[in-house]
Amino acid sequence: MNAAPGAAADAKETARIEAFSDGVFAIAITLLVLDLKVPRGMAEGRDLLAALVGQWPAYLAFVTSFATIGIMWINHHRMFTLIGRTDDGLLVLNGLLLLGVTFVPFPTGVMAEYIPRAAGRVAAAVYSGTYVVIAVFFNLLWWYAAHYKRLLMSAADRAVVQAITRGYSIGPLCYALALGLAFVSVAASLVLNLALAIFWALPSQNPLVKKGEAP
Amino acid sequence: MNAAPGAAADAKETARIEAFSDGVFAIAITLLVLDLKVPRGMAEGRDLLAALVGQWPAYLAFVTSFATIGIMWINHHRMFTLIGRTDDGLLVLNGLLLLGVTFVPFPTGVMAEYIPRAAGRVAAAVYSGTYVVIAVFFNLLWWYAAHYKRLLMSAADRAVVQAITRGYSIGPLCYALALGLAFVSVAASLVLNLALAIFWALPSQNPLVKKGEAP
Amino acid sequence: MNAAPGAAADAKETARIEAFSDGVFAIAITLLVLDLKVPRGMAEGRDLLAALVGQWPAYLAFVTSFATIGIMWINHHRMFTLIGRTDDGLLVLNGLLLLGVTFVPFPTGVMAEYIPRAAGRVAAAVYSGTYVVIAVFFNLLWWYAAHYKRLLMSAADRAVVQAITRGYSIGPLCYALALGLAFVSVAASLVLNLALAIFWALPSQNPLVKKGEAP
Amino acid sequence: MNAAPGAAADAKETARIEAFSDGVFAIAITLLVLDLKVPRGMAEGRDLLAALVGQWPAYLAFVTSFATIGIMWINHHRMFTLIGRTDDGLLVLNGLLLLGVTFVPFPTGVMAEYIPRAAGRVAAAVYSGTYVVIAVFFNLLWWYAAHYKRLLMSAADRAVVQAITRGYSIGPLCYALALGLAFVSVAASLVLNLALAIFWALPSQNPLVKKGEAP
To answer: Is the pLDDT of residue B81 over 50?
Structure first.
């Protein structure tokens, strides 16, 4: 019933890479909670409340990392709706991306610990720096797959592919801006990181969505 | 063979969101065990036994959170049996719900640490407060999907949809009651949380189940 | 093409419960490694080696729990190859079983900490006691599903079903024996736990396997 | 439509073992981040930066273990593309392999802690020693499945099977070499471990890939 038996095997292979990647995204996003520490030894309710409220940088780091890994997952999935087959280069580049994603809980913990202190700028720079690297890995993965439509489905629309290439290439620049901002204002750097995740979640920013909505 | 080729793609998209969400639910429910701490430095068997028994608030918190995440998973699944397609709004609202679910191990740890102490009321209030927020996210997700049956399958029964809307809207109120109870009696607040999970697991409380049992 | 459209929906439901359960088994079995602690502050290589070797009870606990969760996963899967549909009772009883499985890393950590100490007997008793409870949950789940073949596939062989019922009913007794042995000899209790996992992994002990090998 | 109804059941069984194994690989690879510790109590930004940079052995251990578990996942998957059915022996041997994989975060933590210290050689030897054992388990699994093509798909090419057998048999020797190198130079031992993961990721080293690329 299938004209190209190889196409089914290709789809199975890309589905398996996607399923493994989904697992890594889901675990990394859920491990973020381990960066939140239960305050110990509070005698009274008001002490506990003050300690919990005083941990606001940790909650902010938790929410920002959650939103960022979440938007990465969405984009990874959107990318794979266009990728029709895999090869070893894609496996390796996807592995680099996942290496970055599994690393996120560490700079999140650093930022949660140091935001309100003198070392906060370094912490925020390390945090945004991690996202610069991940955004570069994202672009490498996409460029590799999309170059001359090497691994894309034949039905992939050229205009959509180019729009994605343009869209993704802005990512590293945005996070580099957040990295620079860290040395001016830790708060501004963090707000930019969170704003980026929210902005990229908006459908109007995503060419794939527009295409998806077309009949 | 498929009258609407878009329907198959829609089903694949909702299935993937559901699979990712299932992964997050499964990981969050399993991470709860990390809130249980091995007592250190007990010299004799009876000391160890006393220390283990003395940790009963931690076990109670573990079981209550397990039951609550479990019932959330069941309800999330039931909800998605009626949802026929997805869009970016649903992705974002589902992300908010998962943010709440991955957060649960933290207030569980707070409660496990502080139940038997003076700060127990604040801990129990934070715990129930988390569930108030998650229950609100649940309602947002459902309202968004069910409004004018925006994202529901066309076969979804209007009476069932309305019954779910009514049923879910009670959730935030119940958890708000548990939150208020925390300031009267920590034990009563906890028992209410556990009772809610058990109550919602009963089939007679769930319109979706009744529908599912109809031929 | 399907004579019974409900059968496909039933199969999808049981598949989803199985997938969620598989996720919980996989996470619980992987979290066991967190019970192994890196020795701190060893000055010389021989100190580190001695500290690592001195942690043998932790490795033994790790391997025993890994083997036990592994055999539970296999048995859970075998059980679900016979279960053809689900209901809320099955969901709740399966949830109880998973509650037990996610709990395992805690008594494993207790045993790893206390085996070579005076409190080792209590630790080993708590460890085996956990398995007694899980084995009871296993039997409840199976009895519920198999009673008058309530939820079994119509093709399920009555002799196989009875053999499983007999086989599972021995589980709680075996673990109760290990619990009792803990007060005589911690080592004997542990060896029995490990031996049980290995014994149940042998194909000749499992009626489902024999059936599976029949043409 | 299926000539051999048993083949479909066999494929379902092997798919489920593969899915469970994938889950364990994904969790183990993501738990590695817990070996990275947030430096505590740094007063100034430059102290934090120095502390983060000073943790380079931990990052090296993280990346090496990530790459090694990643390449194991790829090889496990490639192996299962040739395995057509399962039995209890395969389940047990696959369980042994997963036991090794879930253990990896522990020697990774030991190495991260001790590389720059006097005990670094023992740490690096334990690390490579873990991979020797896992590589042996890999060979056992493959020999068991491939012996007289016991569990392989009938379509599996004999030349490909023999090439894999040869390729895998080198694994334990390579890691044993890294183990020995640890006593000469910790750095050389680590670099060899990382180099092995990268080398095995290259498509030209993998007979299965060549076969996969054939039309």
So the answer is: yes
**What residues of D are in contact with residue A58 (Cβ under 8 Å)?**
none
CA dist A110 and C124 (Å) reads: 38
Q: At what angle do helices D45-54 and A105-114 cross, to 10 degrees?
A: 150
- Average pLDDT value over all residues in chain B: 86
Dihedral of CA C6/C8/C13/C17: which sign? Answer: positive
For residues C14, C20, C25, C27, the Cα torsion angle rounded to the nearest 10 degrees is 170
DSSP tally for chain D: helices H, then strands E: 9, 0
Q: Does D45 touch chain A (CB under 8 A)?
A: yes
What whole-number distance in Å separates Cα of residue C72 and Cα of residue C21? 11
For chain C, the domain total comes to 1
Q: Phi/psi of residue D145, each to 5°?
A: -70, -35
Q: Three-class SS of residue C83?
A: strand
User: By the CB < 8 Å criterion, does C66 face chain D?
Assistant: yes
CA distance A101 to D70: 14
Reply yes or no on whether the pLDDT at D157 is more than 90.
no
CA distances from C165 to A126, B89, C8, C143, C206 (A): 57, 48, 27, 7, 11
Neighbours of C76 (CB within 10 A): 20
Q: Determine phi and psi for C42, rounding to 5 degrees.
A: -80, 130
What are the φ/ψ torsions at residue D180 (nearest 5 degrees)?
A: -65, -40
Compare D147 and A196 and report the one with higher pLDDT: A196
Assign D83 to helix, strand or coil: strand
Q: Compute the radius of gyration of chain A from its Cα atoms.
A: 20
In this predicted structure, what is the pLDDT of residue A81?
85
CB B90 within 8 A of CB B16: no
- From residue A106, alpha-carbon distances to B98, C178, D33, D110 in Å are 21, 41, 7, 18
D130 and D104 Cβ atoms separated by less than 8 Å: yes
Of C33, C39, C52, the CB nearest to D103: C33
Kindly report the pTM of this predicted structure. Answer: 0.90
**pLDDT band at B152, cuts 50/70/90?**
confident
Q: Which of A98, A105, A119 lies closest to D48 in CB terms?
A: A119
**Contact yes or no for D170/D142 (Cβ under 8 A):** no
Q: To 10 degrees, the CA torsion angle through C209, C214, D5, D9?
A: 10
Helix axes A105-114, A120-146, angle to 10 degrees: 160
Point out the residue among C43, C48, C77 whose CB comes nearest to the CB of D123. C48
Phi then psi dihedrals of residue D147, to 5 deg: -60, 120
A-interface mutation test, from B88, B94, B137, most A Cβ less than 10 A away: B88
- Structural domain containing residue C201: 5-213
Q: Give residue D38's pLDDT.
A: 92
ipTM of the complex: 0.87
User: C132 by DSSP, 3-state: which?
Assistant: helix
Partner residues linked to B101 by β-bridges: none
Averages of pLDDT over each 10 residues, chain C, 215 residues: 57 86 95 93 90 91 95 89 86 94 96 87 95 95 84 79 86 94 92 89 55 39
Which residue shows structure tokens 């925006």? Answer: B150
The answer to whether the Cβ–Cβ distance between B24 and A30 falls below 8 Å is: yes
Residue D198 burial (C-beta neighbours within 10 Å; 0-12, 13-18, 19+): exposed
Nearest Cα residue to A142 out of A160, A130, A128:
A160
Q: Which of C113, C125, C100, C111 is nearest to C183 (CA)?
A: C125
| DSSP alpha helix (H) spans, chain A | 5-31, 45-54, 56-80, 88-103, 105-114, 120-146, 158-181, 186-201, 207-213
